[in-house]
Design a protein that fits this description.
Layout (H helix, E strand, L loop, with lengths): L1 E12 L2 E3 L5 E5 H6 L7 E6 L5 E9 L6 E4 L11 E10 L1 H6 L3 E3 L9
Parallel strand pairs: 1-8, 2-6, 3-5
Antiparallel strand pairs: 1-7, 3-6, 4-5, 4-7
Length: 114
């Protein structure tokens, strides 16, 4: 078995940081669908502005809102307006992994889809 990139939201913009919420990341459901992500899925978040890296899980956000909100302790690691990369991984057989193509999306301004 090998762990490979399954899904990636490349360079989304943080719209909120909510320290007083149970930890997670809230992601617009349209972005989740486009990147093949589901509620509760574990993700890695990389902040391009400050180099912070963290792991958390997804909470669905309002469709079409463009919302990317880091909640709880993760809110201390980002600022509104920071550019982040959100990634999830999957375990699969080595031969399957060679053929697998991850879902990668590149949001437009406002974290909108094309």
């Amino acid at each position: 078995m090998i762990e490979v990139l399954k899904s990636k939201i490349h360079q989304a913009v943080v719209t909120e940081a909510n320290l007083h919420y149970v930890g997670s990341i809230t992601i617009d459901e349209d972005l989740m669908d486009a990147a093949n992500l589901i509620a509760g899925e574990k993700v890695s978040v990389v902040d391009n502005n400050n180099g912070e890296r963290l792991e958390t899980y997804i909470i669905p956000g309002e469709r079409g809102s463009g919302k990317i909100c880091l909640n709880g302790a993760a809110a201390r690691k980002v600022q509104v307006g920071d550019v982040v990369i959100i990634m999830s991984y999957a375990m699969m057989d080595f031969e399957e992994a060679k053929r697998f193509k991850p879902s990668v999306i590149f949001p437009l301004p406002g974290n909108k889809l094309s």
